[in-house]
Input
Amino acid sequence: MSQSGIGIAVTGSGSAVPIHSLDNDKLSQIVDTSDEWIAARTGIRSRRLATPEESLTTIASQAAQGAIAMAGLTPMDVDLIILATSTADDLFGSACQIQAELGAQKAVAFDLTAACSGFVFGLVTAAQFIRTGAYRTVLLIGADVLSRWVDWSDRRTCILFGDGAGAVVIQANDRDRLLGFELRSDGTQNQYLNLACQPQPYDLLEDLTIGRGSFQPITMNGQEVYRFAVRRVPEVIEKALFRANLTVEDVDWLLLHQANQRILDAVGERLHIPAEKIISNLASYGNTSAASIPLALDEVVRSGKIQPGDTIAASGFGAGLTWGAAVFQWGR
Ligand code: COA
Output
């Protein structure tokens, strides 16, 4: 519990994905790959892809509406909107457009970028605002449309990613349901996964050349990222559990960033968490970056699998490099 005596509770979830799906067989028409290769190496079978008309703002707002409704609130009850994304519709941020779309006039809104760790970083950020007494109701959205930034001729990366959005409502609560967390960053390994600005030289004056904005597509060293995830994720979860004064036996659900089934299995094995406690929906959606944790959470909440009071160990990891874990209980 915080010094102020104010705790937090996650009281609603929602999600939304684009209509169009691209399965592995169809993807094999675009690059030299196969359903067998992708399924065996990643567990992914299909992914959703946004059309130019389906903006990040649209799917993020849909997910947010679901979360607000589940919490029994209206958009006017929201004090703060945090949009975790790396693929805003606008480089200045998309959270304000979502605020307008929802009609959440009272809410202050900003974007938070921490790649695939964005949801966990956002959850911890939201908790700080609530625990200090600054705000009582936070809407946290994780949403990404990485399909815009994938090199669709690179079979090493384009098979992995998909688009989607997930959201949760986090409210002030007598009992603090965020039991422990740990966040980490290591910029020295940035080169293993990035979506970097690639400024194009532009002669503004004879003696002044500036860089005009453009981005190179996602580049990744798959083996290094795999090694990083399998080593660092169990570590950070153990640290968050330690801070929560819990052990792995207390975990009801392991909710990892949905990057790769082999990573999920390896982390589960290292932590001795049985497969039936590991939430996985990446076969249908691939890696949806900041959306993957709240999207998977919303599915299991709505299916009735997760019950109020269940202890969830969530962990995000990805570009930055960033990684982190949050141990929380669902509901008030
Ligand atoms: N279809 C068929 N063959 C493919 C392929 C594809 N989509 N992608 C790569 N290959 C080939 C390679 O060309 C290579 O062939 P070669 O040995 O003849 O050169 C072979 O498969 C092995 O490639 P490699 O890159 O070593 O595969 P891998 O076992 O490391 O698997 C990943 C690749 C991407 C699935 C794996 O590294 C991974 O999941 N890494 C983590 C990525 C991730 O999760 N990123 C996001 C984190 S947020």
